[in-house]
Specification:
This protein has a single domain, classed as P-loop containing nucleotide triphosphate hydrolases (Rossmann fold, 3-Layer(aba) Sandwich). The chain contains 6 helices and 9 strands, in the order βαβαββαβααβαβββ. β2, α2 and β3 form a beta-alpha-beta unit. The N terminus is likely disordered.
Length: about 220
């Protein structure tokens, strides 16, 4: 099985408190998406939404499904802002219950509007432990400056918390990255990822849902 589709041990997604915003940060190609899927996959009600800035919605849905043996039980929404979705809608997106399309990762207002629409539906349905995964903040920073992305995240994290949801966001980091330090202030917990001698390693800071010391996965 693809390494993206295996559970990360000893990560405990079900132990993330409602309303928590989690940043998964580390160098590129270190398994951050794998951690994202596990954390989002911890939803008690199997209710989730992904905001994808890199890969098309149907690919993200397929990858997520590969990590969930009970994928047909999920209520899955995707906000696709890759610019590649075109006029694709629910009927043409297997595994996605609600597909929303934004023209570009640079349209932060549009992304916010579509995600807010999903959150309102969750609130109306009284969804329990819904979860949001955004992959990746690094793409947003290619289209908008740090101030705009910060303001966008401030609003999004607050709205996710308002429905007692868990938000998980990935970020490629580099040594001494000023933007990284600014954005990190917005999150309640962080999963740090790095390259180790035996593969990727991670640790959790600010939460009790994973190891506090570097652990290979």
């Amino acid at each position: 099985m693809d390494t993206e589709a295996t559970h990360v041990d000893p990560l405990r997604p079900d132990a993330v408190d409602p309303g928590t915003s989690v940043l998964v940060a580390g160098p590129a190609m270190t398994g951050k998406r794998r951690l994202l899927f596990d954390l989002v996959g911890g939803s008690a009600s199997k209710t989730a939404a992904f905001v994808t800035t890199k890969k098309p919605a149907r690919k993200v849905a397929a990858w997520f499904a590969a990590t969930r043996p009970e994928t047909e039980e999920w209520d899955l929404s995707v906000v696709d802002c890759t610019g590649s979705a075109g006029r694709e809608r629910r009927s043409r997106a297997p595994g996605i219950d609600d597909l929303r399309v934004v023209s570009s990762p640079g349209d932060l207002t549009g992304v916010g509007i579509e995600l807010t629409g999903v959150l309102r539906e969750w609130d109306h349905d009284a969804a329990t432990d819904p979860r949001v995964g955004l992959h990746s903040l690094s793409t947003l920073l290619m289209y908008a400056d740090v101030k705009r992305v910060y303001q966008f995240l401030h609003v999004v994290t607050s709205r996710v918390a308002s429905v007692d949801g868990v938000g998980v966001y990935t970020l490629d980091v580099s040594a001494g990255g000023t933007a990284d330090d600014v954005l990190k202030q917005l999150f309640d917990a962080m999963v740090e990822v790095r390259r180790g001698d035996d593969g990727s390693e991670f640790r959790v800071r600010g939460g009790d849902f994973g190891p506090r010391s570097w652990t290979t996965f």
